[in-house]
């Protein structure tokens, strides 16, 4: 937060919780990180078949959804 990449907010549904919201500069940094990750993944899997590339993408999406449901109770 000292770098100004995150701002602390209050959860309107549960005041005991804090939300961390990136201002524009934080969103820009996240976009650069995501772009870098996408380039590295694309380069790393360039020789993979379409089916092989689809499998981890599908499973990671499923993992993230299930992880979020487990940790947030939704």
Structural account:
The chain has 74 residues and is mainly alpha-helical. Helices cover 59% and strands 11% of the residues. It has a two-stranded antiparallel ribbon. A hairpin with a 7-residue loop joins strand 1 and strand 2 (18-21).
Features:
about 70 residues, mainly alpha, two-stranded antiparallel ribbon, 2 helices, 2 strands, about 60% helix, about 10% strand, flat
In angstroms, what is the radius of gyration? Answer: 17 Å
User: Would you tell me the overall average pLDDT?
Assistant: 90
Counting DSSP H or I runs of 4 or more residues, the number of helices is 2
Spatial order of strands in the largest sheet: 1-2
- What structural class results from the helix and strand content? mainly alpha
The percentage of residues in β strands lies in 5-15%
Distance between the termini: 28 Å
Principal-axis shape equals flat
Count of β-strands: 2
Largest sheet: 2 strands, antiparallel
- Point out poorly predicted stretches: none
Helix content: 55-70%
Give the SSE string: EEHH
Topology:
Elements: E1 7-10, E2 18-21, H1 24-44, H2 50-72
Summarize this structure briefly:
The protein has 74 residues and is mainly α.
